[in-house]
Amino acid sequence: MRYYRSYMDRQEISRETHAKLLELKAPRRTARPWAKCGALAACAALVLGVGVWKLSPAPAPAPAQSGSQLTLDGSSVPEDRPLPSGTVALGDWETGFVVGDSSATEKLTFPMIPGIDYRDRTGIPDMALSRAYAPGSFFVDLTKEDIQTIFWGPEGKPQADHPKTEQGDLPWTLFWDGYFVHGSAWYDGQGQLTELTVYGEKGRAEFELELRLGDLPFNCCVDMNRGDELSEFNGVEVAGWSQVYDRNGDGETDYICGSEFMTQNNIGVRFVNQNSLMQAEYSGGENLDLGGSQTFNALFVRQALTGGLYLDHLKTAEHIPAWREEEFSTLAQARQEAEFAPYLPASEPEGYSSYTGNKEFYGRLSYQEGIQNMLFVRWSRGYDNVEVAVYRDGCYTCNPVDPDNPASYDLRLYEIPWCDSVPEEYRETVDHPAFRAEDMSLAIVEARGREHDTGGMTYSFDVIHPGGVVVSYRCDGLTAAQVWEMVCETL
């Protein structure tokens, strides 16, 4: 067990894989605490077409005073006072907004709720898969107007000439009042809409809406035993499911409800919500919290299939970032990229060129305007690799260190496991520090060496060159002198 733990403590992903993960700019998820605002109606309970509904109203946030910042719990904090720990200012989400109440909420009554069969999937395992993004893919934040048009269409908000048509920021029948809503659209390299996602949070309640033209949204999980029970509403088949468990590990039970369907205008929909401010009996159920989540989900299904959903305004991106992807089979090909060549090794690393066993070379250029500009090369011999990644245009964030402070980078000062021996303030820099080119030396390379599982040593660090170019090294099976020689020729 001692050797197993020692082995596992030394495992790490390659710098190339790490870079790929950083490139996957997923739609932003936000912090959990949110404004508890907006009673949905004056009544505590109403008898409707399906079950008995009880709301759990919460106080609306007081408006922020002049010279203050509104926080996610609805309170205001003066601009010159730091926010409480764990609190995030609303301004941290440039395009998100808190959904305002309808101007005549007290005049409205609940709509008829569709009867959707939310099959219990609690305990059914999913097999997680990863989502790959095609070269050139990019994300664009949705504006408030973008999200409003999804629900109201190109005509915009209905006229408030009748109490039942009065609206807030979004159709009142969604019951999203008080939710902080934001989203992003995912486009392919030609600027065509691939999928979009809208998120909402309000206290412990949250939802995720995925929309895709012409097909159901992509799924990152393979459910081996789903077996959907389909319900029908407004002539459309709807697959529904529910789960009850501690989804986020906070010690509290979560009530999750999901639905999938294709709209009449051929938009694929997946809507998953977790918890709800309303409690309800749904189709004779006894769990009011689960019933509330089912109610919230069914209200969305009703609005989507009666009021409609629209994506025409988002089909094509206004601006397509320029991009280029290319692979190289030899170092000579990679060195034809003039802006990267000065930072690449002039030849194969010593110890790899003379290796007679199974070895290979791989190179890749990955460029996307304003997002990344990187050239990566790798030599492999068995389980050893020498990897060099060159980042231009400020597309890579590194961890600069002071060479006069060995505690921030010298691996010889710490024992494995590092989580027990490395001070918290140095964990990122000890893992992978960055040095200015003029500070580099053989002594620094030696300080970055540690034993490799296949024998010999391995070294990892970044070098910051004038102009902001960063070169990242990870070298297995070489001596410190061999690594230094490879670095030195680029200085």
Report the biggest beta sheet as strand number plus sense, adding barrel if it closes.
Answer: 10 strands, mixed
User: Per DSSP, what share of the residues sits in E-state strands of 2 or more residues?
Assistant: 25-35%
Class derived from helix and strand content? alpha+beta
Multimerization status: single chain
How would the global form be characterised? Answer: elongated
> What is the rounded Rg?
28 Å
Count of separate DSSP helical elements: 9
What is the overall pLDDT average?
80
Q: Flag low-confidence runs.
A: 1-11, 17-92
Distance between the termini: 44 Å
Helix content: 10-25%
Q: What is the number of beta strands?
A: 25
A few lines on this structure:
This protein has 491 residues and is α+β, with helices and mostly antiparallel strands.
Describe the structure.
It is a single chain. The strands form 5 sheets. Strands 5, 6, 8, 9, 10, 11, 13, 14, 15 and 16 form a 10-stranded mixed beta sheet that branches. The model is unreliable at 1-11 and 17-92 (pLDDT under 50). The radius of gyration is 28 Å and the shape is elongated. A hairpin with a 4-residue loop joins β15 and β16. It has 9 helices and 25 strands. The relative contact order is 0.11. The two termini are 44 Å apart. With 491 residues, it is α+β, with helices and mostly antiparallel strands.
Write the topology of this structure.
Layout: H1 2-9, H2 15-23, E1 45-47, E2 52-55, E3 68-70, E4 76-78, E5 97-98, E6 118-120, E7 126-128, E8 138-141, H3 144-152, E9 180-187, E10 193-202, E11 205-213, E12 221-223, E13 230-233, E14 236-245, E15 254-262, E16 267-274, E17 278-280, H4 288-306, E18 323-328, H5 331-334, E19 359-368, E20 372-381, E21 384-391, H6 418-421, H7 427-431, E22 434-436, H8 442-447, E23 449-451, E24 457-464, E25 470-476, H9 480-488
Parallel strand pairs: 6-14, 22-24
Antiparallel strand pairs: 1-2, 2-17, 3-4, 5-9, 7-12, 8-9, 9-10, 10-11, 11-16, 13-14, 14-15, 15-16, 18-19, 19-20, 20-21, 21-25, 23-24, 24-25
